From TrEMBL, chain A:
GO molecular function, one term: monooxygenase activity
Domain (Luciferase-like) ranges: 26-394
Claim: Flavoprotein is one of the keywords in the record: yes
Organism placement in taxonomy: Bacteria, Bacillati, Actinomycetota, Actinomycetes, Pseudonocardiales
Similarity field: Belongs to the NtaA/SnaA/DszA monooxygenase family.
Protein name per Swiss-Prot or TrEMBL: FMN-dependent oxidoreductase (Nitrilotriacetate monooxygenase family)
UniProtKB/TrEMBL annotation, chain B:
Entry annotated with the keyword Flavoprotein: yes
Oxidoreductase found in the keyword field: yes
Pfam family, any one: Bac_luciferase
Residue span, Luciferase-like domain: 28-310
Name of this protein: Alkanesulfonate monooxygenase SsuD/methylene tetrahydromethanopterin reductase-like flavin-dependent oxidoreductase (Luciferase family)
Positions contributing to FMN binding: 58, 103, 157
InterPro entries tied to this protein: Diverse_substr_monoxygenases (IPR051260), Luciferase-like_dom (IPR011251), Luciferase-like_sf (IPR036661), NTA_MOA (IPR016215)
MF-aspect GO terms: monooxygenase activity; oxidoreductase activity, acting on paired donors, with incorporation or reduction of molecular oxygen
UniProt KW keywords: Flavoprotein, FMN, Monooxygenase, Oxidoreductase
Similarity comment: Belongs to the NtaA/SnaA/DszA monooxygenase family.
Originating organism: Pseudonocardia sediminis
Length: 458, 403
């Protein structure tokens, strides 16, 4: 029997404290050359997809722009379309929120990306947790947590309706018969919901994979239910084996409850990898990198995200502060995804951890934010990745590193071949589209039974 | 003749060409209009012809026989569009010299997204990005988004006061959108990213600026998420036929595309553009003015006319711009004469793709070169520089280092 295949994606480093910009190998996170290097490396390793995160405002802290971490990023759609030109098989996944975009435009852009890439587009649907992001948009800050998911649900339903409004055979382009479109109603749509009341004709043909792949990243119960009901894959932050397995089991049971086959939704935690020729060397490297990621100032800032107050007078090398978090105060740090749903419980847990293990605040933060689950030799890391998937903690990983853009090179050159040798990762792409490579069936067209061929529109 | 005396040459890419029957020509590739290869091939031809830039048409609704009207449900003409900005982004790494100018509407988009997207196109193309600013007056396009109702503009009513008011409002909004984009492009000073190990600062926050724009249609706080692009500002272009759009161009653009009908009309159109510049109090560099022409080219005058007649018999071509069915040599004479009459250059709309684009690159351009009217190699410049435009300084830079 063939072993279950691992799914591997790559996320572009940048725009957080994990990226060590002071590393001599650290290059531009804006220049297209960086994205090209990263994409070519990932495609050389036959990875499934490239992944870009989103942030729609610069971060600030106490009203001043935050200047320590990498900030600034290029527009996701633009970068992915440029990458479509220089890659041929790898998936192109963009995180785009459903709160500050209109479904019609999102549907056009993703349909275009999917056509230009020959069926390799994916949309990571986020809702943006940060109301202050609205300061940059026509609508202004709006929508509470619950409404964000109701808008996300309607957005996705409408976008899918738009993608379905052109059949895969809509473009006839028959010169002799003077027939360009099959019918005069190609693209017709109408949708009326709580958020959107729209109708008309959609402009963009159906792509080779029918619909772009839908990813989701959210972790509240409503986020998990949304993902279980509507996504093809979930990007999570649960990386330690037990946490990852608990998340996996919880979400897969929600998928079943939503009436879907649990295999239809792939779960992909983010994972940073640190390699060494020996276990000790890898641990030393990791300690050094992590020490630079969580410098004293960063430790304070990350604690502030839980406490939601100014902790600049707290000593990072002292104990976790006894101060109460003030989650209901105006936001102290803006432009970052929240770290916790329950600030009091998290603060208490940090305090407990500090007391129990006699750790300073900075050490607690380092412990909590250790993203590098896989620290070891190429052999041992391949073992671990394999174990997670075999033992049902995940379907794969989205791999990152602390250096842009060359951080992926080592993983692709040293770990991937070992996964291939074990028979758990491909050595050639199986198909042309991202759905083919992820083993996802083409979506049924709205109002039509599910079909198993996805013929090209043109 | 010095390079700056050379005329500028752009092409406007749309579907299978600007003639509605173009898609049925022998070399047309109507089945490939929605593929990367088609657009990559067209861009390669344009770059082979050393052209200054390509524009890519777009709209939030399907093409229609009358472009102001709603979708007409015809199945015998090309219908369907890709997002022009993403086509331009695809072309960025596949080309190295040519300017990439997508059409992006200001009516239904978020200026913040548009500004970051164009800045990114400029980064990805190393300083070759532009923007053809467009408003969307169509009622059906507004219904696609459902966020505002537009009454639509009928060609017969263009001169009524109600229509004038709607049009004015859309163009005012467009001017605000460009203003926001330009402020966002300035919101990161060039050297905002410092990576200063000593102070552990990645950026100098004194070189990042809130733009705090407040207008009738939107407020935008800023700064941009995308650092300042290589050109400072991508090249902003507007197609204009009348006073209201001339004013938008005068307020907001670097380059205006106009539609004179003959050589005498050239002087009057240029006069109108300069009057609009004066009326809005434009400061700095004057608009570069390119004349739009639909072109169908063939070996002889008669063959070109016959070709147009043959296409027209299938489906008549109507256009806001003058239609020229002629030889590359006669077209070269005409362009030189109109250039001498005051136009900085031309945006040619090929009647049939790829046929007329090939003729532009391989026959018209050599004719112009023979006349000393067009360069024989690309110079190593950004798109702005090619139009003799300076790189704008960030408007916030002098505001200095107090936050
Ligand atoms: C692993 C992970 C990655 C995320 N990445 C982004 C991101 O790139 N941009 C963003 O705006 N939100 C991001 N989010 C936030 C989510 O989109 C979501 O809006 C937020 O978590 C609130 O939803 P929730 O309460 O369901 O978690 C991410 C969340 C997770 C768990």
């Amino acid at each position: 029997m063939t072993r279950k295949q691992i799914i591997l994606g790559a996320y572009f480093p940048g725009v957080n404290h994990d990226t060590v910009w002071s590393d001599p190998a650290s290059g531009s996170h804006i220049d297209f050359a960086s994205f090209a290097h990263w994409a070519r490396t990932a495609e050389r390793g036959k990875l499934d997809l490239l992944f870009l995160a989103e942030g729609l405002r610069l971060r600030d802290r106490g009203g001043a722009i935050f200047d320590q971490d990498v900030v600034g990023r290029p527009d996701t759609f633009t970068v992915l379309a440029s990458l479509a030109a220089i890659t041929s098989h790898i998936g192109l996944a963009g995180t785009i929120n459903s709160t500050y975009n209109e479904p019609y435009e999102l549907a056009r852009k993703f349909a275009t990306l999917d056509l230009l890439s020959g069926g390799r587009a994916a949309w990571n649907v986020v809702t943006s947790s940060d109301a202050d992001t609205g300061e940059n948009f026509r609508r202004g800050g709006f929508l509470g947590h619950h409404q964000r998911y109701s808008r996300a649900r309607e957005t996705l339903e409408l976008v899918r309706r738009l993608w379905d409004s052109w059949g895969s055979d809509a473009v006839v382009a028959d010169k002799d018969a003077a027939r360009f479109l099959r019918d005069g109603d190609v693209g017709d749509f109408a949708f009326s919901g709580e958020q959107f009341d729209v109708s008309g004709r959609f402009t963009t043909p159906r792509s080779p994979q029918g619909h772009p792949v839908i990813l989701q990243a959210g972790e509240s119960p409503s986020g998990r239910d949304f993902a279980a009901a509507h996504s093809d894959a979930i990007f999570s932050r649960y990386q330690k084996f037990d946490e990852a397995k608990a998340f996996y089991d919880d979400v897969k049971s929600r998928v079943a409850k939503a009436g879907r086959n649990p295999d239809e939704v792939k779960i992909l935690p983010s994972a940073a990898v640190v390699l060494g020729d020996t276990l000790d060397e890898a641990r030393d490297r990791h300690a050094e990198i992590h020490h630079r990621q969580v410098d004293p100032q960063t430790a304070i800032v990350l604690a502030e995200m839980v406490w939601n107050r100014d902790l600049s007078r707290v000593d990072p090398d002292g104990p976790v502060p006894d101060l109460d978090p003030t989650p209901d105060a105006p936001k102290w740090i803006r432009g970052r995804a929240p770290l916790t749903q329950d600030a009091h419980a998290t603060a208490a847990a940090w305090r407990e951890l500090g007391r129990e293990k006699n750790l300073s605040l900075r050490e607690v933060v380092k412990h909590v934010f250790d993203r590098a689950v896989f620290v070891g030799t190429p052999e041992s890391v391949a073992d671990e990745i394999d174990r997670y998937v075999r033992d049902g903690a995940t379907d794969g990983f989205i791999v990152g590193s602390h250096v842009s853009p060359s951080g992926l090179d080592e993983f692709v050159d040293r770990v991937v071949p070992r996964l291939v040798d074990r028979g758990v990762f491909r050595s050639e792409y199986a198909g042309a589209t991202l759905r083919d490579n992820l083993g996802l069936a083409p979506p049924a067209r709205f109002g039509e039974p599910r079909r198993h061929d996805s013929s090209v529109a043109s | 003749m010095s390079t700056s005396d050379h005329l500028r040459l752009a092409v406007a890419l749309s579907d299978a060409g600007w003639h509605p029957a173009a898609w049925r020509e022998a070399d047309a590739r109507p089945g490939e209009l929605f593929t990367a290869r088609y657009w990559a091939d067209l861009a390669a031809i344009a770059e082979r012809g050393l052209l200054d830039l390509i524009t890519i048409e777009d709209g939030f609704g399907l093409q229609s026989t009358d472009h102001l009207a709603e979708s007409d449900r015809r199945t015998d003409q090309v219908r369907g569009r890709l997002d022009a900005h993403l086509v331009a982004a695809l072309l960025a790494p596949l080309t190295s010299r040519i300017g990439l100018v997508p059409t992006v509407t200001t009516t239904h988009t978020e200026p913040f997204h548009v500004a970051n997207a164009l800045a990114t196109l400029d980064h990805d193309s190393l300083g070759r990005a532009g923007w053809r600013v467009q408003v969307s007056a169509r009622a059906d396009e507004a219904r696609h988004l459902g966020r505002r109702a537009l009454p639509g503009v009928r060609r017969e009513h263009l001169d009524t006061p109600e229509t004038a008011r709607v049009v004015q409002e859309l163009f005012d909004e467009a001017a605000d959108a460009v203003e926001v984009a330009r402020r966002l492009w300035d919101s990161w000073e060039d050297d905002a990213e410092i990576r200063d190990d000593a102070t552990n600062r990645f950026v100098d926050r004194d070189k990042l600026h809130y733009i705090d724009f407040s207008g009738d249609h939107f407020d935008v706080r800023g700064p941009a998420i995308t650092p300042r692009p290589p050109q400072g500002h991508p090249l902003v272009t507007v197609l204009a036929h009348r006073e209201v759009p001339y004013r938008l161009a005068a307020r907001s653009a670097d380059v205006v595309f106009v539609t004179p009908q003959d050589v005498d009309d050239v002087a009057s159109v240029i006069g109108d553009v300069r009057a609009a510049e004066a009326a809005v109090g434009r400061e700095g560099e004057p608009l570069r003015i390119l004349g739009d022409l639909v072109v169908l080219l063939d070996h002889t005058q008669a063959a070109a006319q016959e070709r147009l007649a043959r296409l027209d018999a299938r489906d008549p071509l109507r256009s806001d711009a003058a239609i020229l069915a002629t030889t590359p040599s006669d077209l070269a004479d005409l362009l030189v004469a109109w250039h001498e009459a005051g136009l900085d250059g031309f945006r040619l709309r090929p009647g049939v793709l790829p046929d007329d684009l090939n003729a532009i690159a391989d026959a018209l351009v050599p004719e112009l070169q023979r006349r000393g009217a067009f360069r024989t190699a690309y110079d190593d410049t950004t798109l702005r520089e090619r139009f003799g435009l300076s790189r704008p300084a960030s408007r916030y830079a002098t505001a200095g280092s107090t936050a």
